[in-house]
Each structure stands twice: as C-alpha cells, then as structure tokens.
Amino acid sequence: MNIKTKEIYSEVYQVLNLLGNEYIDRLPKSLFNMLEEKRNINYEPKYTEDLPLNKQNIKKETLSIIALLHLNYWCENVNEKKELSQMFKNNEDRYQDELRKKYDPDNIFKKHIQEKIIKNEISLVEYKESIFKRLINKIKSLFI
C-alpha cells in the first residue's frame, strides 16, 4: 500500500474520531479496524470543529470516503439517501460531460486534419530570391 493511501486512511480515522462514537458505532467494526490498522501512524492530521472540512487541509479522496460512509451508514431515512445518491450521480454526469468536451474524438480528429492542411499549405509556398540577392551570391561564390 502506498503512502498516499495510508495518509487518506489516517485522515478518515481522524475525522471519525472527531465525529465521535455515535458515528463510529454505526460503522462495521471490521471497517473501522481496517482504517485503524492500515493508517499511517506517523501522520496525524489536526482538524478543528469550528471550520467545515472543505475549508481545512484535507484530501479529496478523504472527503469522498466520508461521503460514501455517510451514504451507506449514516443516512437517517430513504429520502436523504436518494437525495445524496442523486447528487453523486449529477456530479458524475457533470464530470463525464467535461471529459467528453475536453477529449471529444471528433474534435481531436478535426484539429489534427486542420493542422495537416495548414502544414501542406505552408509547404506549397515557393520561395524565390531576388535578382539582386542572386547576383551577390554568384559574386561571392567566385571568390570563395
């Protein structure tokens, strides 16, 4: 397991301890024990209760795991779970749309074809030296 994963586990563990036993008790013991065992013991993030987590120095992956824990174990009723699931789905759809726009195969090929056309047009231009320049070059070649 890499260092970043262990740090994420440490952050999740720290947030759970900050939330208290009410939230820890709702989790499966095996999940909490796994977080406790696999976390980086030397990395202990400090969080304050006064600030929201997104304002503190916390990794995106940690927030994702906490959101997943909230969905699976801490949602109070079915409506809250549906709303949260819908929010996750909307975020994923937005992300996929951004990726599709950024890496759209049709646009990539259009750009590539346009670049080839521009290069071909540039290569078709013929360069001619002026008469004066050719005369100077002939004289130089006689002396060299």
Quick description:
This protein is mostly helical and 144 residues long. The chain has helices at 3-19, 21-24, 29-38, 60-74, 78-102, 105-123, 131-143.
Stretches with pLDDT under 50, minimum 5 residues: none
Strand content: under 5%
Distance between the termini: 71 Å
Q: Helix- and strand-based class?
A: mainly alpha
Helicity, as a percent range = over 70%
Question: Tally the helices: what do you get?
Answer: 7
Q: Major sheet, described briefly? A: none
The whole-number mean of residue pLDDT values reads 84
Provide the succession of SSEs: HHHHHHH
Number of strands: 0
Task: Output the radius of gyration.
Answer: 31 Å
Q: Which of globular, elongated, flat, extended, rod-shaped describes the shape?
A: elongated
Question: How does this model look, in words?
Answer:
By secondary structure, the chain is mostly helical. The protein has seven helices and no strands. It has helices at 3-19, 21-24, 29-38, 60-74, 78-102, 105-123, 131-143. Helix 1 crosses helix 4 (60-74). It is elongated.
List keywords for this structure.
elongated; 72% helix; 144 residues; mainly alpha
Topology:
Blueprint: H1 3-19, H2 21-24, H3 29-38, H4 60-74, H5 78-102, H6 105-123, H7 131-143
